[in-house]
């Protein structure tokens, strides 16, 4: 057995156990393992390396793949050849980088807000999770804010080599009785001028809108994945949350929220 074959066998997440009858395929039958854990998820990208020619083809999974699965399902593709018995399913370079050289961190932001009828964006207090510091304006993507905003009102500092916002999960509740009273939570990123005073622009990563329509027991929930560009945080970036009222504005209503933000980073060079 050649050294390259030994390498592929060691690296393979699965080995094709049955040759398909056509070059147009949407699944491959593979030799199952014994564990029941999920190995790959829908949307992951793998390569099939043909055992006879050595040619490789990219496949995008459309279903989860477990260690004990007998087939791997993916978006239909037409290859240049029929995949032979004994071909290897291996991880793509990007997937290996994301899984082997990336670590995840789950970051929490609590929110409480009560009062005001002005509709301006509110920052979080420096002493608790009460959003009661007015920005004085309705913030917009690209607005320039004082450099001290990053230190006073942010809740997350990116590590030295930056990181990526992978997922944002929202949970909000309000006792607002007016169905026309609305609220908008916004998540911004902002560079900080380290050891300096230069103001910098904010970038809107995402916003979540809800209202008093659900009643006091209703929990508004959403989970989103920002684009790679919006989710990318540089070494000196911070995350800032704001909330504002929209529509009818009642001073006595309260808003409660939990926001969880999943970030990924490269631990080999990350230094706080």
Describe this structure in words.
- With 272 residues, the chain is mainly β.
- It folds into 2 domains: 3-100, Beta Barrel (Elongation Factor Tu (Ef-tu), domain 3); 103-265, Jelly Rolls, CATH 2.60.120.
- 10% of the residues lie in helices and 44% in strands.
- Strands 9, 14, 18, 19 and 21 form a 5-stranded antiparallel β-sheet that branches. It has a 4-stranded antiparallel β-sheet with strand order 1-8-4-5. It has a 4-stranded antiparallel β-sheet with strand order 13-20-15-17.
- A hairpin with a 6-residue loop joins strand 4 (45-49) and strand 5 (56-60).
- The radius of gyration is 25 Å and the shape is elongated.
- The relative contact order is 0.18.
- The model has no long low-confidence stretch (mean pLDDT 92).
Uncertain runs: none
Largest sheet: 5 strands, antiparallel
Strand residues, percent: 35-45%
Under the CATH scheme, which architecture of the largest domain would be assigned?
Sandwich
Helix-and-strand structural type: mainly beta
Classify the helix fraction into a percent range: under 10%
Number of domains: 2
Number of strands: 21
Explain briefly what this protein structure is.
This protein is mainly beta.
